[in-house]
């Protein structure tokens, strides 16, 4: 950061906005297209269309796992980005302490929630722990830097609002096209993502 607090704060805000403008729509795509994405992956992996009971069960379970993990993606990226922000200030102690807290919270939440929800609970614990760690890191770094720039909050609001419109479009197109053979599922993914992405950009 070279002692340039204002420049550091500006670059921090710019970098975070750039990360979120990409990660938020990617998260929406994971949430809305998890099942066809997993279906296509397993079909390619096994070299055939998945149509057996075992295959459908595997798709359902794996899609559920992807969905729960996707919920935590923005928090995970925020956490990692803020850690780099501390390192840029030559502060290694703070990210170490925050990481310890994050890991402790994840262990506790995953164990407790898994007892009630199974593997979904463990994955929810992952999401909640990284949300905790991300907010902790962001708050601490913002205090050190004197904020993250006035445009960060407004930008996040725009990205989330765009994602709210993107989600039903992506899901709706995917439902209309439906899944089938490998090529059909591939077309479903491409067109759904393109439609949702178009809404997000507009």
What does this structure look like?
The protein starts with a helix and ends with a helix. It has about 200 residues and is mainly α. The protein has helices spanning about 5-45, 55-70, 75-90, 95-115, 120-145, 150-175, 180-200.
Low-confidence stretches: none
Number of H/I helices: 7
Principal-axes geometry comes out as flat
Rg on CA atoms, Å: 20 Å
Percentage of β-strand residues: under 5%
- Mean pLDDT across residues: 86
Largest sheet: none
How helix-rich are the residues, as a percent range?
over 70%
Number of strands: 0
| Backbone structural class | mainly alpha
* Distance separating the two termini: 35 Å
From N to C, what is the helix and strand string? HHHHHHH
Notable traits:
mainly alpha, 202 residues, 87% helix
Task: Furnish the topology, listing elements before pairings.
Layout: H1 5-46, H2 53-71, H3 73-88, H4 93-117, H5 119-145, H6 151-177, H7 182-201
Helix pairs in contact: 1-2, 1-3, 1-6, 1-7, 2-5, 3-5, 4-5, 6-7
Short note summarizing the structure:
The protein contains 7 helices and no strands. Helix content is 87%, strand content 0%.
